[in-house]
Amino acid sequence: MFATAVIVFREVLEAALIVGIVAAATRTIPGRNRWLAAGIAAGLVGSALVALGTERIAGLASGMGQELFNATILGIAVVMLAWHNLWMSSHGAALAADARGVGKAIRDGRRECSVLLVVVGLAVLREGSETVLFLYGIAAAEGNASMSMLAGGIAGIVAGVAVGWLVYAGLLRIPLRWFFTATGVLVLFLAAGMASQAARFLVQADLLPSLASPLWDTSGLLPQSSVVGTLLHSLVGYDARPAGMQLVFYVAVLIVIAAGMVWVGKFGPGPRHTEAVS
Amino acid sequence: MIRIALPVLLAAFAAAPALAADDTFSLVIQDHRFDPAELVVPAGVKIKLVVENRDATPEEFESHDLNREKVIAGKSSATIWIGPLKPGRYPYIGEYNEKTAQGVIVAR
Description:
The complex is a heterodimer of chains A (278) and B (108). Chain A has 278 residues and is mainly alpha-helical. Helices cover 79% and strands 0% of the residues of chain A. With 108 residues, chain B is α+β, with helices and mostly antiparallel strands. Chain B contains one helix and nine strands; from the N terminus they run αβββββββββ. Chain A binds chain B through residues 3, 7, 54-55, 58, 62-64, 66-67, 75, 78-79, 130, 133-134, 136-137, 140-141, 195, 200, 202-208, 213-214, 219, 223-225, 239-243, 249, 252-253, 256, and chain B through 1-2, 5, 8-9, 12-13, 16, 19, 46, 48, 56-60, 64-65, 67-68, 70-73, 76-81, 83-85, 95-99.
């Protein structure tokens, strides 16, 4: 049962961290709870569908469908997170200054919320489908073991959601002055980490050269299967043995989004911009 | 990023058949075990690993050492590209049945 809980926890954790960070980053946007719930619900339905269609997806693109599917989902999430950060760079301060927002902010906020829905939905879908497959395998197995293993699965889900909630609650304790800078930086690294994972799938499918495999090996120093390694993998895309192409994607996304945020001109909209508003 | 990546992807698609040549190796999953449990492959070249899952339930081939993960549906086969590897031992697991599904790829 414990082994089951650990596996499910690992799968759920990544999605829960993303949901926690996105929920915090959008805390001032009106009506975001409904969008968040809709995103999670859509992701759960989607993960059941993806789990059902595993074989069909895998068969696409001459056997590389799964890699392309994962890379596409990650790519869309990266674009959405980038869009979110640029949007927050220009609107975040206004929303922070007046939490209820004005007409335009609400109208813009609605579009921002649909972006949020997509990111949350995709995160749940990707990690959820693997969890569904795993739990299906347990349920299909015969013997008395399956009940206790299902209990382990539920324990894993609860623990994963709890960590996501802790991250969310912890982020909310950051003073408003630094809040949007902090969540902006978190989202930036989240996006870069996803881009690196997308690159790994494309290398695995032999659609991109690895450039170096691995570029470095820090598995002795900080194994990716350790607690800290898992957390860093989910949060900033840590990889103990990355392909060179992963670093290329990582750095490129980091630079493009950061440059975009600076260009929008309100990176770190805390004190400076709040003064301008008031 | 997507606009830049697309032509690269298409080019890679076109090049793919040329790359798929000799270094194909097979693994079988049966009763939640890998066979052979130890697979010797040449070091320094890209390897095409074909994993056939004969069980009815899905399995996830996962290896931090190889930096790979792929779900293989029940009663189906999947291809995983690995390497080029430095000489050494690269353990992997079937994440859904970690207790029994363990193997190692040895690069020489």
